[in-house]
Specification:
Distance between the termini: 60 Å
Strand content: under 5%
Number of helices: 3
Helix content: over 70%
Largest sheet: none
Structural class: mainly alpha
């Protein structure tokens, strides 16, 4: 049990470093399409969290599933807000 926890934590830390390096290398012109793709992945995470919450028993699992749904929803809404703001930058001033 402890070994799998350390392996999971190790993978999580490596994913943080890789994610940071990948995100900092993205040019601004690709940010909007990548944000849309990220929103689609978060939508899949929401569906998965809903399925998990509906099939498990126990208060801890339910609370963790609910938190997963809330955080994924925050990510989706924030992503759409950022995408909308970036697309507003390309609109002509008179319209």
């Amino acid at each position: 049990m402890i070994d799998s926890l350390f392996v999971g934590f190790y993978i999580f830390v490596l994913a943080l470093f890789v994610g940071f390096e990948v995100i900092t290398k993205v040019p601004p012109t690709l940010h909007t399409p990548l944000m849309s793709g990220s929103n689609a992945i978060s939508g899949i995470a929401i569906v998965g969290a809903l399925l998990v919450v509906s099939s498990v028993e126990g208060s801890l699992s339910t609370v963790l599933g609910f938190l997963a749904i809330v955080f994924a929803m925050v990510n989706v809404v924030g992503g759409f807000m950022v995408t909308d703001r970036m697309l507003d930058m390309f609109k002509r001033p008179g319209k």
